[in-house]
Amino acid sequence: MNLQSASKDQLQQWAQQLQSEYETIKAKKLGLDLTRGKPSTEQLSLSDAMDGILKGNYLDASGTDVRNYGGLDGIQAARELGAEMTGVPAANVLAAGNSSLTLMHQAMSIAYLYGLNGPESAWNKQESATVICPVPGYDRHYGVCEHLGIDMVTVGMDQNGPDMDAVEKLIKEDDSIVGLWCVPRFSNPTGVVYSDEVVERIAKLANIANPNFRVFWDNAYAVHALSDDAPQLLNIWQACQAAGTEDSVLQFASTSKITFAGAGVAFMAASDANLKGFKKSLAFMTIGPDKVNQLRHVEFFKADGALTAHMNKHADIIRPRFDSVLRHLEAAFGDNELGTWESAQGGYFISFDTQPGLAKEVVQLAADAGVKLTPAGATFPYGKDPKDSNIRIAPTVPTVEQVDEAMKVFVCCVKLASVKQALTQA
Ligand SMILES: Cc1ncc(COP(=O)(O)O)c(C=O)c1O
Fold first, then answer.
1. Which long-range contacts (CB under 8 A, 24 or more apart) does 127-130 make?
2. Integer-rounded Cα radius of gyration of the chain
C-alpha cells in the first residue's frame, strides 16, 4: 500500500474496502485491551511460591527480626539482590518498599525541596528548575515533574537512546536544567537499549552541568530481556567512576515485573553522598521498609542463577505476544510508510509511530471497534505529542489470541486513518 504514488481512484477504493473491513470488525463488539504495561496473571503466578516461603523464620542472616521496625537501608541480602540488578556494590544500594516510582518521587522531591547535598543545593533555590525528558517516554515520570511544579523540556529518542547532542546543548545553554529522566534498558515505550556511547556521554554530563544536576536512571527493565542475545547495557556506575561523576546519577529498579507488581521490592543505588542526603529526609517518612517482604524475595532468589532462570520463564510467556505484534506490523507496514516501530528485545512495550497527525484518530477508531489503546500523547509531557503520531502498544496482559485479534483491528485502523488522510491531501 503506497499512498504517495496511489491515484485518487485507488485511494477511494482502498478507503471503501477498509471502511467495510472496519465495520465488520465493529459488529463483533470486541472488548480487547492493549493499554496495560503490567504482568499477566500467568506471570504473577510464577512467584506464588514466595507466599509462606519464610515458614515462620523471620530472622535474616544477621539475626535481625525482620518483623520489627528499623533498617532504613533495607536488609543486607536484599541490597545484594539490588546490587545484582543495578551493577552497583550493595553498600551503595538501598532496598525499600514495593515501588521504585515512590523512590523516584521521593528523590526528586528531596532534590527539589531540601537538596541532596545540603539546603543550598535544593532546586527550589533556583529561579526555575527544568528536567530533560527524552520522548517518547514514561508518562509517570512526567507526572512526578508536573506534581512538583518542575518544568520539562523534551529531546528525541533514536535507536541508541536520547539525542545526546540535544541533551548536551540544553545543559550547556540552560542553567535551570537539573535533571534527566532515563529508562536505559528496554525503554518505555521504544524498547531501546542505550548504546555504550550514550551511557558514557550521560556519565560525563556532570562535567558541563549545574552542580545539582542528577540523572534519574530508571532501570525498570534491567533484567527483562526476551532473548539471550538481547543487547546489554553498559554499567553507568562504572562509567561514572571513570569520569569522576558518581554523584550525578541516581539509579532505580524494582522487582515489580519480576515477582508481584504490587508487592515487590524497590531499589535505589547511588553514591554515598546522595544516599546520605536522601536518607536524611527519608528518615522523616518511614522508620524502615517492609523487611518481611525483602526476606521473602531473598529466600525466593537465593539459589545461584535463580533470577535469570525466573526471568527466562517470564520471557517464555511474553515472547509470543511480542512476536504476534511484530508479525502484524511487519506484514502490514514492512514495505510502506504508514508506520514505523522498534522491534523491542525486552521490556513491556512496542512503540508505534503513525504518519503525523493520526495517532489520536487511530486510538479513537480502535476504541470504537472495541480495542483499547494507551491514549495518544501519553508518552509525552503534558500528554501532548507535537506530531500526534506515537502509540504505545502493551501486549503482556491479553492472551496471544487476543493480541492477535487486537492487532488485526489496530492494523485496519492505521490503514483506514492513513488512507483517509491521503484522500484529503490528494
Ligand atoms: C519505566 C518504568 N519505571 C517504573 C515503573 C513502575 O515501577 P514500580 O512498580 O517499581 O513503581 C514502570 C511501570 O510500568 C515503568 O515502566
1. 127/176, 128/176, 129/176, 129/178, 129/179, 130/174, 130/176, 130/177, 130/178, 130/179
2. 23
Using the mean position of ligand 1's atoms as its centre, give its distance from the Cα of residue 205 in Å: 24
CA dist., res. 268 & res. 215, Å (int)? 13
Q: What is 285-332 written as a DSSP string?
A: H-S---HHHHHHHHHHT-STTHHHHHHHHHHHHHHHHHHHHHHHHHHH
Per-residue pLDDT of the chain (426 residues; tens, 9 = 90+): 889 889 999 999 999 999 999 999 999 999 999 998 999 999 999 999 999 999 999 999 999 999 999 999 999 999 999 999 999 999 999 999 999 999 999 999 999 999 999 999 999 999 999 999 999 999 999 999 999 999 999 999 999 999 999 999 999 999 999 999 999 999 999 999 999 999 999 999 999 999 999 999 999 999 999 999 999 999 999 999 999 999 999 999 999 999 999 999 999 999 999 999 999 999 999 999 999 999 999 999 999 999 999 999 999 999 999 999 999 999 999 999 999 998 789 999 999 999 999 999 999 999 999 999 999 999 999 999 999 999 999 999 999 999 999 999 999 999 999 999 999 988
- pTM higher than the cut 0.70: yes
E strands in 80-129: 93-95
Q: Are strands 214-218 and 177-182 parallel, antiparallel or unpaired?
A: parallel
Contacts for 332 with CB less than 8 Å, ≥ 6 apart: 338, 339, 411, 414, 415
Out of 139, 233, 254, 265, give the residue to mutate to test ligand 1, the one with the largest number of ligand atoms within 8 Å of its CB.
Answer: 254
What are the grid coordinates assigned to 297, written together? 524475595
Count of CB atoms within 10 A of residue 280's CB? 14
Measured distance CA(375)–CA(379) in Å, rounded? 9
Question: Which three-class secondary structure state does DSSP give residue 205?
Answer: helix
Report residues whose beta carbon is within 6 angstroms of any ligand 1 atom: 37, 99-101, 138, 183, 188, 218, 220, 254, 256, 266
As a 3-state breakdown, the chain gives helix, strand, coil percent values, each rounded to 5, of 45, 15, 40
Report the nearest atom of ligand 1 relative to the CA of 347: 16
Q: Which of 365, 355, 390, 396 is nearest to 376 (CA)?
A: 390
How distant is the alpha carbon of residue 344 from its chain centre?
12
The secondary structure of residue 210, as a DSSP letter, is -
Determine the distance separating the centroid of ligand 1 and the alpha carbon of 261, expressed in angstroms. 9
